[in-house]
Amino acid sequence: MKVLHVESGRHLYGGGKQVLYLMEGLARRGVDNLLACPDGAHIAEPARAFGTVIELPMKGDVDIGLAGRLKRVIRQHRPDLVHIHSRRGADVWGGVAARLAGVPALISRRVDNPESRWAVTLKYGLYAHVITISEGIRQVLLAEGLAPERVSCVRSALDPAPYLREYDKAAFRATLDLPADTPVAGMVAQLIPRKGHRHLLAALPRVLERHPRLQVLVFGRGPLEAELRQAIADANLGDHVRLMGFVDDLPAQLGCLDLLVHPADMEGLGVSLLQASAAQVPIIACRAGGMPEAVRDGINGLLIDVGDVAALGTAMIRLLDDADLRRHMGAAGRALVLDEFSVDVMCEGNLAIYDKVLARAFHRTGP
């Protein structure tokens, strides 16, 4: 089986890492992988270990020419199917290219933001099947009119190995010039509005009344960086909140947090939630999208309603007050990731859908 993967993201964020996990797992199972990605994309170099990489211009939703470029790639390399992994134009033009080339295609949907029924009908009509990374996203698509037999859930996965280590929390705090017993919370997310950084900043004054030495580390990059810096300054939180940017050694730092806060307005699943659980860090997240599938309320973390700043503050105080609860939830989170979010489970789930799509195509066209 030969599969052309299309990933239009330039940075190696959560979605791109899922593509790498999948390519690696498929290669171990004898699948011939191809990857089409933007020129200079961060995924290109590591992906070469698992298949052939084709870099080409990908300019977003208005890049009509992407359909022609991908069609030429399909015609040249003759994959058995095309798997679209991201948006930024690929979700439309990739489907068009596969349709024009006469190759069955499927698409992974990683976000839970709503789409109109006409958009769902037109866009997903290009695809033989839709794969969602959480049941929450699948339910969104069903509510928007997609037929149940055309959409399946295969959850995102995590390679837990980098997080299965002993963490020296005191040494980590020393690198930040903090006393060894300083409470530290973190947030790992792109600096974009829907991730909910504003809710965390709004909750902090109350939390700091109870835990005045608390430090909050915000990991990630994005267009909101300048706005967040200003908001931190305006709220006089500069002594308590640090923007850490994008760090290459996140696995070495994540387990040194006392808790992870993820008050996103919407989230397909949340790879950072799986990472935190693997590192035995309890989580506060929202009852939205796929987050309740990664964070089980009262088991490996606490769930709050979207935008409920008071509940966010209460949850943070509860976890910061109770070290035993944090340890218990951390251990439960690691067990959850190992049991339900393995790379092997994710690869087998995608491969089963590939087999079903190809069998249907063979049945329709004949040998």
UniProtKB/TrEMBL annotation:
Source superkingdom: Bacteria
Transmembrane segments: none
Pfam families: Glyco_transf_4, Glycos_transf_1
Molecular function terms, GO-annotated: glycosyltransferase activity
UniProt KW keywords: Transferase
Glycosyltransferase subfamily 4-like N-terminal domain segment(s): 14-160
Domain (Glycosyl transferase family) ranges: 169-334
UniProt cross-references to PANTHER family, sorted A to Z: GLYCOSYLTRANSFERASE (PTHR12526)
Name this protein carries in UniProt: Glycosyltransferase family 4 protein
Lineage: Bacteria, Pseudomonadati, Pseudomonadota, Betaproteobacteria, Rhodocyclales
